[in-house]
UniProtKB/TrEMBL annotation:
Listed Pfam families: DUF6698
Species in which this protein is naturally found: Hypholoma sublateritium (strain FD-334 SS-4)
Region annotation (Disordered) ranges: 1-33
Protein name: Uncharacterized protein
């Protein structure tokens, strides 16, 4: 009578010789490693408050301002210091108990450890999202059913950017004509340096820019919305209602509204 190969014979089960190195016995399952809560909160901080942030410097400067500089008038702080402190306060608000923990810490090393865990979370989230989107975004470059010419390898970034006709046209500054061969060549060689205040055309609805109304359609493109949904709701929600068995990042962190930083984060991932 045949036996189920997934059920070990009785002599093996009863054998006193069966140990952890017994090839016919399933070893003990590894317990899942739990994520430190600060790493968990750091992931959300990087996605929704500030992606590219030196958390250690942010926390240190925040402690100084709330401590020894707390009596200084607001007028003495620079615009950069005000902006930095707003980010710091947002961090405190997003992580339960963080303010008490850092303000009552017994050493600089303890504060550094807290900042390092938050930084780890922000960095790992950015890396995970980049890896996940590297393949997914290829399907969004052209309308469904149309071929991407030339094709792009899903696991490589070499053929992307200004080096590819389609991705280059989407990354091209909205006020520059990608069809101009001279402009295209200068963008590819780096001779044309794109400034921070030049919006790429992929941020605009239907990839159309209106010189007379630069705000028209801004941050309303299909590829940006899909990227945002991929990151914050779930990859399966991009083209339809979310049906994932696991909660998306927004629900996990209690995110109920879109922030300016989260839109910027999604844009940088494109």
């Amino acid at each position: 009578m045949p036996t189920d190969e997934n059920v070990p014979p009785m002599d093996v089960v009863a054998s006193p010789l069966g140990g952890p190195n017994d090839a016919l016995r399933l070893g003990p399952r590894k317990k899942p490693r739990s994520m430190d809560p600060l790493v968990h909160h750091g992931r959300h901080f990087g996605r929704t408050i500030h992606a590219l942030c030196n958390v250690h410097a942010l926390v240190n400067n925040g402690i100084i301002r709330m401590g020894e500089r707390s009596e200084e008038p607001e007028e003495t702080f620079t615009a950069q210091e005000h902006r930095e402190h707003r980010v710091f306060l947002s961090l405190l608000k997003s992580v339960p108990g963080l303010e008490e923990r850092i303000m009552t810490s017994s050493s600089e090393e303890e504060v550094h450890g807290i900042a390092a865990l938050l930084q780890k979370g922000a960095s790992s989230a950015r890396s995970d999202d980049t890896k996940s989107l590297k393949s997914a975004i290829i399907d969004w470059l052209v309308p469904a059913g149309e071929p991407l010419i030339p094709p792009i390898a899903r696991n490589s970034k070499i053929e992307r950017g200004f080096n590819h006709e389609i991705t280059g046209s989407l990354l091209c500054p909205a006020d520059v004509d990608w069809k101009d061969d001279d402009v295209k060549q200068k963008l590819r060689t780096g001779e044309y340096s794109v400034s921070g205040d030049q919006w790429p055309i992929f941020l605009y609805a239907s990839y159309k820019y209106d010189d007379a109304d630069p705000w028209k359609g801004l941050l309303q493109s299909a590829i940006l919305v899909k990227t945002f949904k991929h990151i914050f709701t779930s990859p399966s929600s991009v083209d339809r209602e979310a049906k994932a068995t696991r909660s998306g990042n927004a629900r996990i962190h209690g995110m109920t509204n879109v922030t300016r930083a989260s839109i910027a984060y999604a844009a940088t991932q494109v």
